[in-house]
Amino acid sequence: MTSLDIAPFANALVLGLSIASIWLIAAIGLTIIYGTVGVINMAHGEFIMLGAYTSYALQSSLGLPFLLCLPASFAVVALVGLVIERGLIRYLYNRPLDTLLATWGVSLVLMQGVRLIFGSDPKYIAVPEIFQSNVEIGFASLSVFRLVVLAITALIVAATAWLFYRTRFGMQVRAVMQNKEMAASFGINADRVYMTTFAIGAGLAGVAGSLFGVLAIVLPTMGTAYVVQAFLVVVVGGGTLMGSVAAAGLTGELQSVFAFVTNDTFARFLLYVLIVVFLRFRPRGLFAVAKGRR
């Protein structure tokens, strides 16, 4: 194979990492909520959408720089998630079908609410000019902003791993996941753990939305485009943080390589078929952890 043949394939591999980072950052909040609380959050896509609109609103009304919009989006969407968990989700734990329907209803309410406030016309999030250029990596050419997304994703994964595996709060989370009643006997407030975890997961979706709002136009329906991939990453990864990292990397690279060989539409078809076959033989995902459920 000549260097001319290698260059496009290498570019596809690098692009696959970019795709993986996008899918992972969409999935990481969902992984936290599902892995800890056991809730299949159908409103996760709308949390992503709220993050994008938060950044747009802060830029257009206050002129806030883009990098400051990221923590602001986390705070705003985390607060929305906190209100939803306290007002609705907390009453539906251990009722998966009711939770599924309730979060789907929440997603419709959020979508229509944003449409009423901001309208249905597309919005745009501005980024500094330094992020709008391209950088050459060997044979590959990649936008600086995609590299920023990759770096932010790595930072979020590291911070999340530290929070859940190196802190007292993380120890409490793992204890509640293993046995809620036993954890309560040691003075751990499971209700507070669920509330905090749900808010963190929602906030991370808000950060994802701020990043995605730069890569695509901001619309009330934009969350739908990302939530499917987020669910696939979580399911293939087995609902664990490291599983989601591995699943995002694997699916992102496969998507990019398949698209290089065929086209984007057929690549998605092949990827979904492979995921279905994989789950047929390993329904618990890549790194599923045996645990008692609440």
Automatic annotation (TrEMBL):
Xref: InterPro entries: ABC_transp_permease, ABC_UrtB_bac, BCAA_transport_permease
Predominant cellular place of this UniProt entry's protein: membrane
Protein origin, superkingdom: Bacteria
Pfam families: BPD_transp_2 (PF02653)
Signal peptide: none
Keyword Transport: yes
Bilayer topology annotation: Multi-pass membrane protein
Subcellular location: Cell membrane
Name of the featured protein: Urea ABC transporter permease subunit UrtB
Organism, scientific name: Methylorubrum rhodesianum
Organism placement in taxonomy: Bacteria, Pseudomonadati, Pseudomonadota, Alphaproteobacteria, Hyphomicrobiales
